[in-house]
Amino acid sequence: MSARKHNKPAGAVRSPANNSHHKKPQSPSVKQKIYEPYWPLESVNEGIKKGQLIVGPLRINPKNYEDAYVPLPDGSADIFISGMKDRNRSLNTDVVVVLVNPYEQWRVFVDVFDEFEKSSVKSSKSLEEVSDDDSGPDIVYDDSDNEASCDIDIVTDLKEMSFTDDATNDTRLQKTPNSQESKDKSLKKTPNSPSQVNKDKNLQKTPNSSPQGSNMKTPVKKFVSILDMRTNGSSLAKDLFGVGKSSNMSEEDARRFVQRTGRVVYIYEKKNSRAASGRLKLMQDKNKRFALFSPSDSRIPRIIIPMSECPKDFYDRPDIYAQILYIARIQQWDETSNMPLGCLAKSLGEAGQIEPETEAMLIELDVDDTPFSDKVIECLPQNLPWTIPASEYTYRKDLRQSCIFTIDPATARDLDDAVSIEELGNGNYQVGVHIADVSFFVQESTELDTAAASRATSVYLVQKVVPMLPRLLCEELCSLNPDQDRLAFSVIWTINEEGEIFDEWYGRTVIRSCVKLSYEHAQGFIDHPNKVWTQDELPPITNGFSVQDVCKRVLQLNKIALSLRKQRFDNGALRLDQVKIQFSLNKETALPNGYSVYKQKDSNRLIEEFMLLANMAVAHKIKQSFPQKAILRRHPPPQIKPLEVMEELCDSLSLEIDASNSSTLHKSLLKYYGEDEFSQSRFQVLVVLISKPMQLAKYFCAGTFQDESLFHHYALNVPLYTHFTSPIRRYPDILVHRLLAAALGYSEVTEMSTQLLQKQADYCNDKKLNAKMASDRSNEMYFSIFVKEVGPLEETGMVMAVLDKSFDVLILKLGIVKRVYLEKLPLVSSEFRKNMKSPELVIEWSADEVCTRATRHLITLFTLVECSVFADKEPLKCSCVIKRPKEEITLAAA
Questions:
Q1: What 3-state DSSP class applies to 881?
Q2: CB 291 within 8 A of CB 170
Q3: Which stretches does the entry tag as region Disordered (predicted)?
Q4: Which of 667, 738, 752, 869 gives a 20 to 30 Å CA spacing to 326?
């Protein structure tokens, strides 16, 4: 694997080994380097080849911007990157090259070791004073990778300050209610770092500092290393962490107690857009040459903006711009600068308004919402209304007389898929899945193809869809609309009611859907199989078919789907469904006026089963035909360490969770499903906890992997899988359609190399993740607006993580995780107990008008609480508090 060339930041040196021989002549005012120069490309490639360097995507914790992680190549665990210096100017989602630190500098999970020590010997020495409150495994719900969570606490402007050139200075201090670094007096002492940092005597006159700058304390080390344990630990610690890697520690113990640490030495690929939304402020020292841009996302560093980029009267009247949302782009980040230099790209409007915030989000996530170019539009059929060319009928199977129909959400416009079923008279059926033949319109290497490949996916927001293809294709020519002749790619099986498959056929077809059913229509058939339906209860049914014809076929398909589903889970599939909400919008204001919980029913599962079946069938076909070029989709197993932490947590609560594989995990989870409120709530929390260690599924080109066991899809527990069924909204499906067409002899196989196909697959993975984040953030935005409009929401929640000064609550009806801070509650006192793997809080409520005496309350994992979710002062943010329990809860040994 070789690193790609990229534009190196100014100041990067050619060789880490001989910097002194290549430096330019220095003037007396030369700036001190804050960040390590990036390694030269030759050294990087050599290190990767020898296995001395790790390449992977960087994830920054949205709750603590100083903590970042890079996964090991096998995905089994993460490398911990502590602080901005070690992150070395890389940004969230960048693919970075990491040098793993020496063993002595690896991170120790002190809380886990303490528990191990207590169970082994009674130690007289405690290490708690050097443990970071929020870094140990007793944080059950670690948000380091929670990109889709609605519980991302955005940190905006905190306290303006000037900055020194100290190499360990951070450009931003995070101010959250439970932050241990937000005030100097709360900085903790660690064995090998000072408790206080003196003033920097060599302030530089740079855009990000001034001679009048305030002194800023250097953040102390936030974790305990193996060297710390050797130096200051108990006798057991000194023995276990003795000299020599793992000399006195088993591999299992090493995985439990220790996490690799490292530092970034090169940015392999700048995947972060380097665009951020935020607000413009004056420097604390009122610098007239530069302004300070404070991003809304705490994972993006503050950006220095030349005053010439700012509004003309900004310096004199900064207050009138305080609520204006801007887009800034990072242009340069030198080794000598705490913060990057950037430019203002756009003024979006008032912060907190839907359209400016939506536009900002799309720019940040690199979602292209611009109109399609004229060259792209020229690739579309020009003579409308369009009709299928006569030549297409000569080689396609004509299925226009078959009873084919679509089942989709009621509001869907891009109808990718249709289904059909016919009885064969011998107990078997002919079942068809018919997918829009988008590849007929999107020819390879055209301007239209380039645009689709660039967008890679449609993006679904609350108020709109950003389409991958022009709407003429999405909503008309490709969409399998009723009573319209349409081109399709079909997979047809001979199958019985038990889901046994006897034959399958693939081919291009012409179809004519007889009706557009919603999931609600299909569910009505399933729920009321004996009802005599009338035409006015359904959309128009054409092509000579009756309501009864369609109803009968839906019931037949559902019966087979139930058998297929049972087979899948019997064979080890895993399903982790979480609550989703959807909004209704006011037609005049476009603001949310209500929400509902999206519930998956049998009609959804019916379509899901046949789409899965088609995807698996096509995966085998294209892999067999083109083993080097097949575009497939794999799902790596969960990360080992977080999975073990989850298992140990459940074990401490007498919950038997066997995470050996997807099958045992699914069966373990089902044991704890019940009909009562507590069991259902606990089940929801368990699903969220089990989802945390899961890795993302990824597109890949088969020829890039020698070990075919890596093709495996963990959640489905199948050896081969791909995406074939949604080509209107996913570009990988178009690639798969082209491969299937070549496999069936309709066309030549693509000339794209394995490497180019893999590059496109990687790009699609990135775009898919960005689309998911955009969708989640859009939902979060509308939820916050709804809460602001209607007032606080009173909902039941269940505790899913306990910290020393806060705890996380899953709002059960909404599927949203919110952090509750103790300082926001009217408490007399609180006590944090490290109760083995399951920590707990004892809080004492102050007396009030209703309850005239203090009330004590035990907060543990799975505690049911009554929550109040309310709008923050910060636009588009919500906070949560819990209510005092109606009666005092008896506390054991309180």
A1: strand
A2: no
A3: 1-31, 123-145, 165-219
A4: 869
Lowest mean pLDDT among 151-160, 280-289, 657-666: 151-160
The answer to whether the beta carbons of residues 135 and 223 sit under 8 Å apart is yes
What 3-state DSSP class applies to 457?
strand
Pairing mode, if any, of strands 262-269 and 864-871? unpaired
CB count within 10 Å of CB 502 equals: 10
Can you tell me which residue has the tokens 């499903």? Answer: 673
Residue 822 burial by CB count (10 A; 0-12/13-18/19+): exposed, middle or buried?
Answer: buried
pLDDT one-digit tens code per residue, 188-246: 333 333 232 233 333 233 443 332 233 333 344 568 888 888 888 777 777 777 755 44
> Helix/strand/coil (H, E, C) string of 84-142?
HHHHCCCCCCCEEEEEECCHHHCEECHHHHHHHHHHHCCCCCCCHHHCCCCCCCCCCCC
SS3 of 208, please?
coil
Binding residues are 408, 417
pTM: 0.83
Helix (H, G, I), strand (E, B) or coil at 451: helix
Residue 540's CB: how many other CB atoms inside 10 A? 10
- Measure the CA angle with vertex 847, ends 843 and 851; round to 5°: 105
H-helix or E-strand containing 778? Answer: helix 754-790
Using DSSP bridges, classify how beta strands 107-108 and 224-225 pair: parallel, antiparallel or unpaired: antiparallel
Closest CA to 871 of 786, 810, 794: 786
CB 149 within 8 A of CB 771: no
Question: In the Cβ-directed half-sphere of 459, how many Cα atoms lie within 13 Å?
Answer: 32
E strands along 374-500, which residues?
397-398, 404-408, 417-423, 428-436, 459-460, 465-466, 485-496
Element (DSSP H or E) covering residue 608: helix 602-625
Q: Radius of gyration of the chain from Cα atoms?
A: 29
Strands 397-398, 501-512: pairing kind? parallel
Q: Are 224 and 175 spatial neighbours (Cβ–Cβ below 8 Å)?
A: no
- C-alpha 514: how far from chain center: 38
Instruction: Write down the residue that tokens 């000339």 correspond to.
Output: 751
Residue 831 tokens, joined: 């006590």
Binding residues for Mg(2+): 408, 417
Distance of alpha carbon 373 from alpha carbon 602, whole angstroms: 42
- Contact partners, residue 865, CB within 8 Å, separation at least 6: 796, 797, 798, 799, 809, 859, 882, 883, 885
Per the listing, tokens 């030349």 go with 306
Q: Is residue 630 scored above 90 in pLDDT?
A: yes
Q: Torsions phi, psi of 782, nearest 5?
A: -70, -35
- Tell me how far apart the terminal alpha carbons of the chain are, to the nearest angstrom: 58
Buried b or exposed e, range 110-121, using 16+ CB within 10 angstroms: bbbbbbbbeeee
Kindly state the DSSP code that residue 479 receives in the 8-state scheme.
S
Rounded to 10 degrees, the C-alpha dihedral 187/193/194/199 comes to: -90
The span from the CA of 175 to the CA of 183, in Å, is 9
pLDDT in tens, 684-710: 999 999 999 999 999 999 999 999 999
Helix (H) and strand (E) counts in the chain:
20, 35
Q: Is the Cα torsion angle 539, 545, 550, 551 positive or negative in sign?
A: positive
Main-chain phi, psi angles of 535, to 5 degrees: -60, -35
Distance between CA atoms of residues 433 and 503, nearest Å: 14
Three-class SS string for 417-450?
Answer: EEEEEEECCCCEEEEEEEEECHHHHCCCCCHHHH
Amino acid in position 259: Q
Collapsing DSSP to helix, strand or coil, 207 comes out as: coil
Q: Which two tokens stand for residue 212?
A: 């009048």
What is the C-alpha to C-alpha distance for residues 889 and 530, in angstroms, rounded to an integer? 51
Whether the CB-CB separation of 669 and 683 falls below 8 Å is answered with yes
